[in-house]
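Entry 12.
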Amino acid sequence: MDVPVALAISIAFIMSCINFLTGNGHVYFDSVVMFIFFLSLGRYAELVIRHRNLQTGLALARLLPEWAELIRNSGTEQVPATDLRVGDRVRVRAGQTFPADGVVFSGSTEVDEALLTGESRPVAKQTGDKVIAGSINRAQAVEVEVNKDPDNSTVSMMGRMLLKSQTHRSRFTRLSERYAGWFVSVVLAVAGLTALWWLTHDVTMLFPATLAVLVISCPCALSLATPAAIASSSRALLEQGVLLTRGAALEALGSIDTIVFDKTGTLTTGSPSIVDTVINPNREGYDAETVLRIAALLELDSSHPVSKAFADIDVKRRPGLNIINHENGVEGWVDGVSYRLGNAAFTQVNVIDLAEGFGRIWLADETGWVARFDLDDGLRDSALETMAALRERGYELIILSGDHPQAVASIAGRTGIGTWYAEQSPKMKMEFLESLQAGGKTVLMVGDGINDAPVLSVANISMAVSGASELANSTADFIITGKSLIYIIYTLEYGDRTRSVIQQNLLWALAYNLLAIPFAAAGLIVPWMAALGMSLSSLLVVLNSGRLATHKPTNLPQARARLITQ
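Predicted 3D structure (tokens):
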């Protein structure tokens, strides 16, 4: 980008020195100074605006406290938060910020996670609950056991992904850079032809016209058109609760025509609750408290979403459990009895009718079923409003789930999604998406689980919802930090606006150069005016992109992420 301007400054300065020493011709020291002044002024303005966009990443780092109260056998000690390691225990008092990701070791409190997840109301935390570095303890002191090193914390991960998105070279960026290189070659040729023409017609206009062509045609605006827009959008999205991890995904959002959703943990909360406990009337010695305790022990180490239904039951680990996790349930020994907990097929319960929703799970021993737990998994916040808005925009909506057909059909009916597929393995999901793409569809995949990571990587664009696995987050183009699905609408809205602004920037940059060069070559623009025009054109592109950072989506919910970047 700097070749034409650097060449113009060098020629102007060298010729001015020669003319000054020989006493012949004009000197252009004033033009050289004006070149440098306007160029520096324009670059400074661009730097301020771009720096403000990048400040969002630094704001994430500033969420963390510098010091932490480390608990040792001899008492407590103030240590740098960056020195904390997995297994350390820290005390976080009321009003303080959690210095690391971890779990509550003792105590209970309420935590403000608004800056990270967009949830405006404090979230209750008890022993065993996870806490995020950067969130604020609002109630009372708790002890937290660190489960992630500072470099692997949620905040660090978000900062790395934000930087990755802002430095990613998108399709428009590569296109503008390629044309910028070609454009510079054309400009140098035009400048040479301008010099030759004035040499044969009016030698006094040779240097002013040639200098003006070189300066006014600098393709700075063309090369800034895309990076400036993506930087502004990534900042704005993060303030609303969406982390952009790949800048090119913003451009591609405008071509989406199909959106595929996982069910459990994506459309639903992924946290089932027990709505009914039924004891087998033919089994003696069991009551609701006993069967819930047995089920909680069996699910103690399970990572399946069903285990969350029993997470609040207070049980202590005991020897001899020998728990084995299976695809459709768990089995183990409790009080010397072998139990199975899972669906009807896994527990070998002879039933025909299965409940809708999250379904029923059964507790059985070697002689038959002992108890049945009816579970329900609620929809995510704003799920119905989001699906209605997506249908209104004309997107084709599909559910791909590994759950049984009754559960998937229930969620599809509640959300109004007409096309759904149940009992889908990760491989089947990938093959389905590839078939959509082979048919000319451009697909956005929304998921959350480890089993969603392969299909997220296959999709044209991918989103991971709040609470998604680390593997899903690492493959997603967008990460929704708030619990509401309405952020999908906001992301699509920003995608449309970003694409529009990029097109405006490119159109302006090309129009400016195509119109200005003939006037400069004709001698109608003096060198200092060329320097001013070149700086203003670049500044206009950056200012136009800056509008994205101040844009607020319509119908914002009360709960959203707010990053303070002052």
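Annotation: DSSP finds 18 helices and 22 strands in the chain. The mean pLDDT is 80.
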